[in-house]
Amino acid sequence: MSKYYRPASVADALTALAAAGEGGRILVGGTDLIVGLRHHTLQPDLIVDLKNAQDLPTPITVTDAGVSIGPTFTMTELITHPVVQEWYPGLVEAAGSVGSVAIRNRASLVGNVCNGSPAADTAPPLLVLGASVTIASVDGERTVPMSEFFLGPRRTQCSPGQIVTQIHLPRPEDGSGSASRRLTRRRGVDIATVSVAAQVNADGKLLLGLGAVGPRPLLTGQTDPLALEDGPALIKVLDELLELATPISDVRSSREYRIATLRALTKRAVLTAANRRNNKEMAS
Amino acid sequence: MTSTTGNQQPASTDQQNVTCTVNGSERSMFVPTERTLLDGLRDELGLTGSKKCCAEGECGACTILLDGRAVNSCLVLCSEADGREITTIEGLSQDGLSDLQEEFLNAGAVQCGFCIPGQVVSAEYLLRTNPEPSVEQIRESMSGNLCRCAGYERIVCAVQATAARRTCGHD
Fold first, then answer.
1. ipTM of the complex, rounded to two decimals
2. Which domains does chain B have, with CATH numbers?
3. Which residues of A touch B35 (CB under 8 A)?
4. Which of A38, A78, A81, B158 could be cross-linked to B104 through a Cys-Cys bond (beta carbons 3.0 to 4.6 Å apart)?
């Protein structure tokens, strides 16, 4: 049987989580945790419901330098925020594909990342957008790049006893564009079979984030400036970048199908991101 | 560290006193941590309109409004609902069938009926947040509510008819 605790402050939450160690779990949206409770794949000694902690960072802070998002900011709030829509269309597309309306009304961006799934929908765009993560513990705070945050399946830099208090997104460079694409078996309430996010800057330099094709979400290195209108040359570069992917066969797809669909989705994401650089098209 | 919650519970507990407003009335439950709001509504409060089907947030049969937002009540703990406001399908039809429920019947959208409470709550949330949705928006917004009788076309028609009825101003 789990105990339930609703701390009034982050300090209280950290103290309780530190004492609980591996047996502690944080509850915000609950869309992963409560499924785990039901299937007994998660049997925490202590559930710490963060939503009443009065001193959490504000759900969203916007400055000229970028956006910071706190633990309680839901997917619905994210995808309807005008600055997020303007600056991070690739993130809006990915967050808007999570679950269903009812899931997105509860699920948080921070929770999606902390759950540590290799298929987390928002991980590829956060990776290409250069996000970083602030992690608090009883010993203090540290901020790590998103590219170092994911360690393996369900394992992140946020260890037992710690809380991700903010995700930071730098304001995108002028003239850059982002886009996300994913494949699912059905339209609503499914987990990604493969997912990809692309970020293209004004010079044509390209970054890719990949989901569900490795033990954790993956980030490629940034390419040299690309001639995006040269189809065969672009495909060659994409194929080289996608060598990073090491998909497996599982209940959602065979390895071969993942490889084939990843190529197609990546091209679509790259061309959409490139197209967004100039005309400021907004994700809808 | 002083508690800012209205409720004076000890730090962490196996069972919690939960007091919330359900369909306009204050209701209390004393429940173990793992008890979902869906089970609390059905088994503690006798509100069996919200249906239990997948119990993992995939089918939408348990959809309720929590502080006005559509959520899967199978993915909410009772304890999280403390101090919050809940509307179930029973609350949407306290004065008889709502216009939305009437349009579900008029459209022939109700077959076995099991998914319908969740469909109606989801549709009500959609119409409150987007009074004149397109067909595409209705399909997207309702994609978390499965109907194994496959009454989707008629469900969409029912939502469209309700939207038209409400925006025309006659009840």
1. 0.92
2. 15-92 (3.10.20.30), 97-167 (1.10.150.120)
3. none
4. B158
